[in-house]
Every structure is written in structure tokens, then in C-alpha cells.
Write a structure and sequence with these properties.
One of its GO terms (biological process) is tRNA wobble uridine modification. The chain contains ten helices and nine strands. The chain has 336 residues and is of the alpha/beta class.
């Protein structure tokens, strides 16, 4: 997928969903298009278990809940054992979702420590290898995993419903770039999108859709760093449309946003300045030929014949009748 940098450059991928808009389809597309074998650990979405095959080894941990199962097994042991016993070579390690993993472990700090260990194990493998984690906002793990202290290089993909952009255009008169200046749009978009209840109200409110669109959604892509050993200053942030069949594509091509872009697209009509005049300004072919044969006056005036040396430059001034030319000193009456 074009919005995901090469794994060698970005070994850590953070996928963020919300109740209003799920990004589980992105995980499906990643696993289908991945060039490396994958280890998938399912804690939340049972539909991902259907991806089990020669290329992907899926582990069902949905019913492994502490206190509800006599044979409960610490998921950390299961994941580490599978990772250490995996064949040598590049590998994708996918955890869905780390919120449920943290709930099973019972500690945010212990979960963060465990994910740091997984990242080190993945990093030690031959490139390209990736650690891909799925998180559902709001979650206390998001600010921890997105910090440079966890990984200097990061690709953070956040799923948003298209209703959020429509809301910004109608309530705040702010359209996505390039229809609005980027500083104005991002300042408003970030403040509204980080309020999770805002998106939930747009989807599940009285006039909401009732669920996020699984076929088309808006993804916010945050890229930091160029990979292990290569550092890029700053953070790149952009918005794209995404669908399960097409992958990433421009926002203007989204079905839900087409009316927004077409209504605000600049008109490119060319106005003819000669229309609605009482006389004809155009020339026929014969008139143009005749005009080209007319010698223009003063075209050769002032030009010297060929091979004749030019005279030195000089300035000649013919005084006007109103000029007051006096060779005397104008200040001679002053006693200086």
C-alpha cells in the first residue's frame, strides 16, 4: 500500500481506530499485500482469524480472558514463544488490539514494557520486519506508543469517518486542503478530531449514519523519521481516502466528499473579450496577408547603413522658450 513506507525504513506501524470508524480493513489489506510472513495475535476481532494461511499464522486469544477461563495463559508468554520459534528471516508481528492485551495484563506500564521488548525482538530480525499494533481510541497507550522514546521512526495511521470533514465544512466553513490553507485546516481538524465524542456524536447521533463506513473512510497519516539509523526532522501529516478495494486515493475522489469538492472547485471558464461588441475585431486570411505586406513607418529610422562606424554618443538639448538659462552664478548676491 502506497501510504505505508517500506518496512526497512519504518519498522513500527501504529494503526488507530475508534468506535465511530474502524480501521480493521487496513490490517486485512496489509496482511494480504505483505511480502513477509506474518504472526497475527487476535484479542479483539475474530474476523481476522479468516486470514489464517500459509503466509499468515493466526492465534486465537479472544477467549483467553483472566478470571473466566481455568486454563488461562499469560498472552505475553504465548507471543514471545511464537516470535522466538518463528523461522529466521523477515517477519511481520501484528497485535489486535493492544488495549485488550493491556486489559488482560492488568497494567499499562507492564504492557508498554512488553511492547518495547517485542519491538526489540522484531528489530533484531533481518530486514524488512515490522511490529504492527492496533489500538482503539480513546486509549492511554496512544500517547505512549507515539512518542520517540518508544520508536524514533513511526507510521501512525488514524481512521476517521468522512462525516467529520463534512461537519467541518458546514459548521466551521473550513474545507480540506487545497480548498483551505493548511495551517487553518489542521489547527481546526486536530482540535476537533482529538475530541472522540465529537466523531461519535456525528455517527451515532440523531442525524448520524449509525456506523462508520467500512468501504470508504478518511485516514490521517503521520510519518516520523526515515527508519533505523536515518533520522528525518519534523513530522509529515496528510489526509487520504481509503477503501478495501482501492486502497489509498485522493480525498476528492471519495463518494461522500465529491459534492464538497465539486461545489467549491474554481471555475476555469475563459471569457472572450471580443464578444458582445458592435463591430468585428477579427481578420480574414486575405486581410492578415495584406496587413503583413504594409511597410511600417519609422521602422528603419535612426539605423545606420551597414559597415558604417557609429558616431560617439552625445546629448543635444534645444532649450524651450520657457527655460530660464543664465550663465551667471545664481548665488553671486550671497556674501559667502
Amino acid at each position: 500500500m502506497s501510504f505505508i513506507p517500506h518496512p526497512r525504513q519504518q519498522p513500527f506501524l501504529l494503526l488507530q481506530s475508534s468506535i465511530a470508524q474502524s480501521g480493521i480493513g487496513i490490517i486485512r489489506q496489509l496482511l494480504k499485500n505483505a511480502s513477509s510472513p506474518g504472526l497475527l495475535f487476535c484479542f479483539l476481532h475474530s474476523s481476522l482469524l479468516s486470514l489464517q494461511g500459509d503466509h499468515v499464522q493466526a492465534y486465537d486469544l479472544l477467549d483467553n480472558v483472566p478470571g473466566y477461563k481455568d486454563e488461562y495463559e499469560d498472552p505475553r508468554h504465548r507471543i514471545q514463544s511464537a516470535l522466538e520459534n518463528a523461522p529466521a528471516g523477515p517477519l511481520d508481528l501484528i497485535v489486535d488490539s493492544v488495549d485488550t492485551l493491556a486489559s488482560d495484563i492488568g497494567s499499562i506500564s507492564e504492557t508498554y514494557k512488553f511492547l518495547s521488548e517485542l519491538r526489540s525482538l522484531v528489530r533484531a530480525r533481518s530486514s524488512p520486519s515490522r511490529l504492527i499494533v492496533h489500538v482503539v481510541s480513546p486509549s492511554p497507550l496512544i500517547p505512549l506508543l507515539s512518542q520517540p522514546g518508544f520508536s524514533s521512526s513511526l507510521t501512525h495511521v488514524i481512521s476517521h469517518p468522512s462525516a467529520l470533514l463534512l461537519h467541518l465544512s458546514t459548521e466551521y466553513l473550513t474545507l480540506p486542503p487545497p480548498l483551505s490553507p493548511e495551517p487553518k485546516f489542521w489547527g481546526l481538524f486536530l482540535s476537533v478530531s482529538e475530541r472522540v465524542h465529537e466523531s461519535e456524536r456525528l455517527i451515532f447521533g440523531a442525524d448520524g449514519e449509525g456506523t462508520g463506513d467500512d468501504d470508504e473512510l478518511v485516514i490521517e497519516i503521520i510519518v516520523r523519521g526515515d527508519g533505523e539509523g536515518l533520522r528525518r526532522r519534523g513530522v509529515d501529516r496528510s489526509l487520504q481516502g481509503w477503501s478495501l478495494t482501492r486502497g489509498p486515493f485522493p480525498l476528492a475522489e471519495m463518494v461522500a466528499l465529491k459534492s464538497l469538492y465539486s461545489r467549491n472547485a474554481p471555475e476555469r471558464t475563459v471569457v472572450d473579450p471580443t464578444q458582445n461588441v458592435s463591430f468585428n475585431l477579427s481578420l480574414t486570411a486575405s486581410q492578415q496577408n495584406s496587413r503583413a505586406q504594409v511597410p511600417l513607418p519609422y521602422v528603419h529610422e535612426g539605423r545606420l547603413p551597414e559597415n558604417q562606424p557609429s558616431a560617439p554618443a552625445a546629448i543635444f538639448y534645444d532649450p524651450d522658450s520657457a527655460d530660464d538659462l543664465d550663465d551667471d552664478d545664481p548665488d553671486e548676491d550671497l556674501d559667502i
